């Protein structure tokens, strides 16, 4: 084994969630002990940039100490627990300024257990209380052509960012009866509309982002670069190391966390011009 010499580690803190969404890509199991991961964090932050993610981190508020330890001011949530003002106050106490909220626009009531009305009300509350809101919107073969419409909704809600996430047939999503994956032509249409949207909206008004799992836009020159393995790895609660959080528990691990050190089983090579998740899932027929 060799020690990981990249820059960033993503810790997946938990797999527990207060809802079960059909399209969820999470494939790992387990929850970190808050005190133990805080201890590990204090050691590993000497060498790596650390970011925390999970299913619903707010189910265990002690995790917020870890975020504060590394200066992470953002968190992602499905929004259910954020209706509690006391939890919102806790977020402010620990320096959380930006909240990523899953809002799938016209697909919300089809793939999520949380209805449109609740999410819209929550977003307005968060914006009014001074949080920067980042909308996490899943793109499927049913809504890929509505990018401009979605951006207009985001702008009217006065959110900071909208980030489009590519539908992946992994985790719970493998059990969906209908495959919502984009084909090549639909993917090209998405990229063209994304480019048009970015021309239309100044970043100061609306930041329009997209997930790396869409891969590289082969029709237009971009700055796309996949950091997996070379500069970034993901660690699950069982201390297994994966190339990307989208692959955590989905493919075989590539290393382990042992005695507060991150090891890879071998010197893996990865073409950073391609999305490792997209390629691996395609090879598995997912």
Largest β-sheet summary? 7 strands, mixed
Q: Percent of residues in helical segments?
A: 25-40%
Q: Please, how many helices?
A: 8
How much of the sequence is in beta strands?
Answer: 15-25%
Rg over CA atoms: 19 Å
Global morphology: globular
Structural class: alpha/beta
Q: What's the N-to-C terminus distance?
A: 29 Å
Number of DSSP strand runs: 12
Please tell me the overall pLDDT. Answer: 91
**What's the arrangement of strands in the largest beta sheet?**
1-12-11-10-9-2-3
SSE string, helices as H and strands as E:
EEHEHEHEHHEHEHEEEEEH
Low-confidence stretches: none
How would you characterize this protein structure?
The chain has 286 residues and is an alpha/beta fold. The chain is built from eight helices and twelve strands. The strands form two sheets. A seven-stranded mixed sheet has the order 1-12-11-10-9-2-3. The protein has a five-stranded parallel sheet with strand order 4-5-6-7-8. Helix 1 (34-44) packs parallel to helix 2. It is globular, with a radius of gyration of 19 Å. The two termini are 29 Å apart. The model has no long low-confidence stretch (mean pLDDT 91).
SSE blueprint and pairings:
Blueprint (H helix, E strand, L loop, with lengths): L1 E2 L4 E5 L21 H11 L4 E5 L10 H7 L3 E4 L7 H9 L4 E5 L5 H4 L4 H13 L3 E8 L7 H11 L3 E6 L17 H17 L6 E4 L21 E4 L4 E3 L12 E4 L2 E4 L11 H8 L3
Parallel strand pairs: 2-3, 2-9, 4-5, 5-6, 6-7, 7-8
Antiparallel strand pairs: 1-12, 9-10, 10-11, 11-12
